[in-house]
Structures are given as C-alpha cells and as structure tokens.
Amino acid sequence: MRIFANTVILSASLMALAAAPGDDSGVSLTVYSSADPAGFDPRQFLEQQQSGWDMVMGVPGFGLVRETRSVDVPKGVGEIAFTDVAAFIDPTTVSFNDLTDPTTAVLDQRFEFDLVSADKLLERYVDQPVRAMVDIEGGPIQLSGTLLAARGGMLVIQRDTGVDLVAQDQATVTLGALPGGLRTRPTLLWNLQSAAGGKHEVRIGYQTSGLTWRSDYNVTLDATNTKADLSAWVTLLNVCGRAFEDAKLKLIAGDVQRVQPRGGTMRAPRAMAMDKAGSPEGFQEKTFGEYHLYTLPRSVDIPQNASQQIALFPSVSGIPVEKLLVYEGASMDWGGGGQPIDVREFGQFGNSKVDVYVRLKNDKASNLGMPLPAGKMRVFQRDEADGSLEFIGEDVIGHTPRDEKVLIRLGSAFDVVGERKQTDFRVDRARRQINEFFTIEIRNRKDAPVTVLVRERLYRWSNWKISTQARYEKVNAGTIEFPVDVAPNAVQTISYSVEYTW
Fold first, then answer.
1. Which residues contact 219 (CB under 8 A, 6 or more apart)?
2. Which of helix, strand or coil describes residue 281?
3. Could you give all domains of the chain from N- to C-terminal order, each with its CATH number?
4. Residue 306: which of 30, 34, 47, 51 has the closest Cα?
5. Contact at 8 Å (CB) between 205 and 65?
6. pLDDT > 50? residue 274
7. Which of 65, 304, 338, 349 could be disulfide-bonded to 331 (CB atoms 3.0-4.6 Å)?
C-alpha cells in the first residue's frame, strides 16, 4: 500500500481495516464515536446544518471511509480526479492503491473543496463583464457592464453611463463559464505516474469528521418486576457532506487514541457497539486487536445530513430482573470537602429519598451474554388497565462486558421514605478514637411489603468496627448494607454504632 507523504496512521489496526480483503468493491465505512450517551443529541447538529452553521468539527466522532472505483489512468504522468468524497475529509489521512497496476506512483495530491455558491461565483467575476436583469417598478431592465464589487447584498456594476448599485435579491445575474478552481463537489486530485494507462481499479481510504453514533436501549418490565424485554438501536449521524449508498457498515468498540490540537476539547473517540453474533438482524461482533469490531451483515444506505436508526441486535425477551429500593441517608456534600474527620457534623446533611433501581445480569442464563456498550437505557412498564406502555425512568450505563451486572436507576420511591439520625458522637483524641451512633428509620406507606437496602458509607476513617443487632453485609472497605424488610403501612428501625481508630 502506498501512503502519501505526511499521511497520519492511527494504528496498525486501523490501516489493516483500510486494506481488509472484504473491501474490494463498493464503499465500506467504519464509524468511531466519543458521544456522551447522557447528553449527545444528533438533532442539534442537523438543525445547525439546516441553519447554515458549520459545526461539523464538534461532532463527537469520525469515520474511516474505504472505496474502490474504476477510473481512467493516463499513461505516463497525468492527473486523475476523484469526486464525491466527504467534504470534511482529513487530506493527510488519504491512502491510494492502484489494484490494476501496483507500480502506479503518486507524485502529489490535493483536495479541492472550494465549492460553487452564488457569493463565490460573484467574487470570482469581479472586474469581469456581467449582465443583470433588475426588477424595478416600471418593469425589469437589463444592465450590462463590469462587476466592481459584490458584498453586503449589493452589486456594484460599472457601465458606460456610470456606476449602478443594485440589490442582489432584486437582480438575476448572467455570468460566463465556471471559473477555474471552483467545483460542484469536493474532489481529490492526484498527479500520477503510470506505466500502463486505461481503466484501473483503484482503492482509496481516508478519515472524515461529521460521522458518529450512539446506542440506545429500551427495557420493558412486566407487572411483577421480575422479567423484562430488551431492544437496542444504533443512531447513526452523517453530516460529513456526502451520502453513502449500498455501504458496508462497521463500528469499533474501544478507546482509540487520537492526537488532538493543544487546547482542544475533543475527547479520544470511544466507539460503542453490541452484537448478536450470527444473527442476520443485527451486528456481528469479533475481537479486533485490542478493540471489538461490529459488522452489519447487509449493505445500508446512509443519507447525507440525516440521522437513522439501525437495530443493534434482535429483541430479547424474558430477561430475569430484580427491583431494588436503596436508601443512602448520608450526604458527603461539604462544598469542597477538606473537613476534619472528628467534626460531629461531618456527613450529617442527609436525605429522605429512597432510590429505585432495576438490576439484571448480562449472561447467557438471562438470554443475554453479549458486550453491552455505554448508552442510555429507557425503562417502560405496561399499564394492565389499558395495555399501554408508560415511561418510568432512564439511566446511562457504562461499557458492560459479558457476565457483569447492569444497574439502572429509575428515580425515587413515592411511598417509601427514610430518615437517618446521629444519636451520639464521642471523640477521644488522646486515644485517637471516634464512636458514632445512628438510628435509621424506614417508613413504608404502601399497601404491600417492601425490602429496602440501607447503604451506609463509613467515611471518617479506614479502620472501623461495627456494633449492631441488625443483619448487615460488608460490601467493601468503606461500605456496609442492611437489608430491611418493612411490612405494609409500617415503620422499621435499625440502630448501629461504629468505632473508628487512627
């Protein structure tokens, strides 16, 4: 493979993509994404495009385009033009392969993107003869002369009788031929040296801005909160300045390093994907170096200046789930922290809300067992009265490998509240010891029993000892959890003390 001087190579893995055996015909597109699933909205970029704002460089991602075409290559030294490339191509990433004659050499290249527009045409015709048909009250008149200026919506035309100022929106201007240097489409041009001219199959590859994607999940809970159905979509955004017809589509999962300009705000692309290996309805996944490569097993049309949804994998039904109520009464919001551990009030600004979660396991036993990329999970539940689906919450999950748990926060419970009180606090600085006493009350105002997981952070120091009659579990070095069963319309109280030494 010949690479132009100054070509930037992302990695050996990416260049292997450009030369993949399956890319010998048509267009192949691999999309990378650094989109934040919590805040990224493709509509904002589409609206900016429609308003004429060029915000493509802010799109969180990029694409790697590979395309094979039949072109006329001149014998000896000559130039060929490759039109219909992305408008936001990075020319330093272009690669060129002559599949018919591998000895063909690229002497130099350039990218012409100064596209035709009314303003640019008028700029090129300054000091040139023009004709303008101008609408006036008495009827249209024709002015012929030399165009002196075209700016601010006004045309300045020098005629034999003087200078005319014409509003551009009131004039129909007739020009000559298209000036050199302007093109109707973005174009790559190469100066080649070839021993054999004629029709050649050539393959090019390049990176372009204006492409990205995100993943979205829809979870539907059953009435018992023990089973769920899951479907997922890829939302693909294309504002790169070119449509891709009948394209082979790939997505990369993994953190791909890219060098960014100093002071830039772009993050390293983190492509997101999932699979249902072997399924004709979704992406097929395989390990690719240190990343995961996801290939859509069918060609797809990707329109310009549009977003579209593609199923990531077939819908999955009957996933075992667990509904959790979790109460964390302590708040560590001290407006910046730095408080001494022996201050009585440290961590005492609590809350009364009990959080609601849904938990599932991403394993084959749960009808899953596939890599789940970071994305937004929307949860719905069916209203048995009329069969309609009602939205009950959403959360963002991180990349979740196989056999790991997924925890989705839905919001806060309405009829279950908690209260945390510090009942005593003792400090013995000579013995370097703190004793702290708590009472936690869970009030259930529902007509059904609930189980609430009371989570306590032991935040004062790493050496601690618990004293309590209640059942609890040590989750990690700084967290314990009390499972509390509360009867309908009842109140349950637990008490414990903790001794810190340092």
1. 228, 229, 230, 358, 377, 378, 379, 380, 408
2. coil
3. 1-109+183-214+234-313 (no CATH), 118-174 (2.30.30.100), 328-501 (no CATH)
4. 47
5. yes
6. no
7. 349
